[in-house]
Amino acid sequence: QVQLVESGGGLVQPGGSLRLSCAASGGIVSSYAMGWYRQAPGKQRELVASIGIGGSTSYADSVKGRFTISRDNAKNSVYLQMNSLKPEDTAVYYCNKLPRPFGSWGQGTQVTVSS
């Protein structure tokens, strides 16, 4: 049974920072490319950052230069450092594998950027 548990979200002012964490059940992080996705109200879920098994990273244009994805295989965890946050970053953030996500998603973590 796949388990993905996201945490670290919250309310932050524009320009602030948050660090999201994703704890995965054993073996997932080291076995797959992993990504952070987000879904804003009324919008489709989108991929914002990914990290390959070898550590290569990729970012959506909207977050490039502001977000950094990383992984710790020993801890079965994936992280997303988010800096210079903007109101348009407000969404529920999820982690999952790539290129085809598991059918079972975690509960996500809410990020709200507002003054």
Main structural class:
mainly beta
Compute the number of strand runs.
10
Tell me the strand order in the biggest sheet. 2-10-9-4-5-6
Helix and strand pattern: EEEHEEEEEEE
Q: Helical stretch count? A: 1
**What would the average pLDDT be, to the nearest integer?**
95
Strand content: over 45%
Q: Write down the Rg.
A: 13 Å
How would you describe this structure to a colleague?
It is a single chain. With 115 residues, the chain is mainly beta. It has 1 helix and 10 strands; from the N terminus they run E-E-E-H-E-E-E-E-E-E-E. It has one helix at 28-31; strands spanning 4-7, 10-12, 18-24, 33-39, 46-51, 57-59, 67-72, 77-82, 91-98, 109-113. It has a 6-stranded mixed sheet. The chain is globular, with a radius of gyration of 13 Å. The model has no long low-confidence stretch (mean pLDDT 95).
Q: What descriptive keywords fit this protein?
A:
115 residues; mainly beta; 6-stranded mixed β-sheet; 4-stranded antiparallel β-sheet; 1 helix; 10 strands; 48% strand; globular
